[in-house]
Write the structure tokens for this entry.
Amino acid sequence: MSITLKYGRTEIVLEPGGRDLPIIAGKAVARLSQEMIFSKLRALMPEGRRLGLLVPDGTRPLPIAALLDELAPAFDGWMVTVFIANGSHRLMSPQEVHRHLGVWAERFTVVQNHSADAYRFRRVGTTSFGTPVELRSEALACDTLFGLTLVRPHYYAGFSGGRKILLPGIASKASIQANHSLVLDKDPGKGKNPRCVLASLADNPVHLDMIEAARLVPIPCALAHFIYKDGKVADVFASFDEAVARNREMFEVRTEEKYDALVISSGGAPYDVNFIQAHKAMENAVGGLKAGGDLYAAMECPEGFGSPDCLEFLKLGSVEAITRRLHEDFKVYGHTALTILLKAKKYRIHLHSALPEEHVRLMGFTLWDGRTLPDLPPHAAVIPQGGMVYFPQG
């Protein structure tokens, strides 16, 4: 049996010693026709001549250009501004924006969120968690907002999509850091808040804070919540809760006995464009792995870590040192570094990537050549689409 895994925009093929390994994939749930999906999407369109259209950046696989093609008839006579909800991600290049939006990159005004430009944001309130909610001023100047969001498991917000298109999507750095700092336990010695875990929304302060922030938006705001499967949009919902429920139905995996070893791919580009994105597949997988188990991960990461903060925090060298620094000066991707080291302490992680060897070792991982596998223990499996399929932790 050979195993083919997506790796960036290419593939790698593994030969696990002639042994057949079970494949863990999403459940076979019927996908709606494209015609039905587009019909549901158009029905969600809000009214308002000056429309702010919120879309995720290129780290999400939603086919934004195709979706805009379908919505185009509804835009006739409207003033449309597309807001790319980068949050704290880097800005996309002009070429990337064109690939992402297609012809609409020239036909509409396009604004990317640069969270550090403090003067571009307007305070709309403060949540009960103390987060100052500062959103992009140009977006709030529209008659209405319409967000196209992708819902899938997220390693500390429970699930992505929905309210995240607003915070962190079009929020200021101050808002994003205040919200994301809720991932820490109030006791610096304990590290991560145990409620801020994958696929868990109940009592998750990061999620609840985002919900409060969304309710503070002072203009009408409608959101479309997409489910994505096998390279295509599978469905769209008006309700975040409905989209989460369908995610659980399609992608959640439970096992009575955790695995001794797992072989995973993030699912190729854009899931493994950088390590911050790629490591989400690791987080999806480790809920099904025994403590001390082996995780073999193929993740290209051509853009490196994706943030200098992640690397700088990793250089602190320990969970304890990172946690202390985060309590002193929270940085979004410092928390990612904390999550990485927590996994490295609990599991043996073998990584095949384009990252420099010293960076792989700094994370506490070992290098894997991505071509050969050792003799794996009896209870082992393969996850080809690690960016989607997940074992719940909460």
